[in-house]
Amino acid sequence: MPANAPDLEATADALRVTIARLARRVRNEGGMQEFTPSQTAVVRLLSETDGGGATIAELARLENVRPQSMSATVAELRDAGIVDRRPDPTDGRAQLVFLTDAAQSAIQRARANKTGWFLNAMRERLSPAEQRTLAEAAQLFDRLLAP
């Protein structure tokens, strides 16, 4: 390893810990109730449908779980007022699961809260040069996540 090369193992470990702490902080800043990982996945998938909804079978396929498991997750979200169901306009036998208007509003508020916290923290705690470094780091993280 060259003399000025970073210790990649130490860097990977430090980033893992820091990113986990950052993710927890951002989640807390959202101000929404905590969901289980499977509930979070359903809410994320439904928020990407632009209000069009999805069937339980589609959600189960996308999350690689059994339809019965997805039904249980959707039932919990429905009991909490996060999702509801309506008939599929193209298949009268099927039901579409969709985010309620209240849930969509809450999600938008939570995202704005998270972004606002991030924006304020960067403005208050980082110099302009550090802000540019963070912008570059965001692009590097995207590259690390690319397939």
TrEMBL record:
One Pfam family in the UniProt entry: MarR_2
HTH marR-type domain: residues covered: 12-146
Database matches in PANTHER family: CONSERVED PROTEIN, HTH-TYPE TRANSCRIPTIONAL REGULATOR RV0880
Name this protein carries in UniProt: MarR family transcriptional regulator
Native source organism of the sequence: Agromyces allii
High-level lineage: Bacteria, Bacillati, Actinomycetota, Actinomycetes, Micrococcales
